[in-house]
Specification:
Elements lengths: L3 H8 L5 H51 L11 H4 L6 H7 L1 H4 L7 H5 L5 E5 L4 E2 L7 E2 L2 E5 L4 H11 L9 E3 L6 E4 L9
Antiparallel strand pairs: 1-4, 2-3, 4-6, 5-6
Helix pairs in contact: 2-7
């Protein structure tokens, strides 16, 4: 026969409902922290990739202009570069083989829009939204497809002044397109 004491010890060897609830809550909190961290890391990685690309594009156009003894950017009419308005960087390098040497870090898939972000060149007399009363004409690189605002903000914080409505980096509230003005307040000879 089992004594009452032995029977009593066997009853308390499992987890109580309170202990299980605490474990479930701890697991849920850890999962939530992990998801927030993962989302932040993913956003920052995507934003950092675009920042790197824009810096490389900026350098490529500056080097191309300096090498060709130009004190201005490429043609004021971007249609003259490729035959189409607002061409992608892939279209530019296809139309101007010399430019390929200046854009080696922007791979063909990225610059054509096959995967991830791609970049469009716009220098047909458009202006960018400056903070001052007068807008400045310049070369804009459009980042397509549309970027979420938090990624655009990260890019602006990294490259510019943190204000998405003016400066070298602007973000269209209606179209969610990031525009990077290569020549905002700058000259090639700097």
């Amino acid at each position: 026969m089992h004594s009452a004491r032995q029977h009593s010890q066997q009853r308390f060897t499992g987890f109580t409902l309170v202990e299980l609830a605490v474990v479930i809550v701890v697991i849920a909190v850890l999962a939530a922290i992990t998801m927030v961290s993962y989302t932040t890391i993913t956003r920052n990685a995507r934003g950092l990739a675009v920042v790197s690309d824009l810096q490389n594009i900026d350098k490529a156009f500056r080097l191309y202009a300096a090498h060709n003894h130009q004190d201005t950017w490429l043609l004021d009419n971007d249609s003259a570069l490729t035959g189409s308005a607002n061409p992608t960087l892939l279209q530019i390098t296809a139309a101007n083989s010399e430019m390929k040497g200046y854009l080696p870090t922007i791979d063909a898939a990225k610059s054509s829009g096959i995967a991830g972000e791609y970049y469009m060149y716009d220098n047909d007399g458009d202006t960018y939204g400056g903070c001052s009363t007068s807008d400045s004409k310049g070369v804009n690189i459009y980042v397509k497809p549309s970027l979420p605002k938090d990624i655009a903000q990260y890019i602006d914080d990294t490259l510019d002044d943190g204000n998405l409505s003016c400066g070298a980096v602007t973000y269209g509230a209606s179209d969610s397109v990031l525009r990077y003005n290569l020549s905002a307040g700058q000259t090639i000879n700097q």
